[in-house]
Amino acid sequence: DTGVSQDPRHKITKRGQNVTFRCDPISEHNRLYWYRQTLGQGPEFLTYFQNEAQLEKSRLLSDRFSAERPKGSFSTLEIQRTEQGDSAMYLCASSLVLTGSSYEQYFGPGTRLTVT
Amino acid sequence: DAKTTQPTSMDCAEGRAANLPCNHSTISGNEYVYWYRQIHSQGPQYIIHGLKNNETNEMASLIITEDRKSSTLILPHATLRDTAVYYCIASYSGGGADGLTFGKGTHLIIQP
Question: A42, B97: Cβ pair inside 8 Å?
Answer without folding.
Answer: no
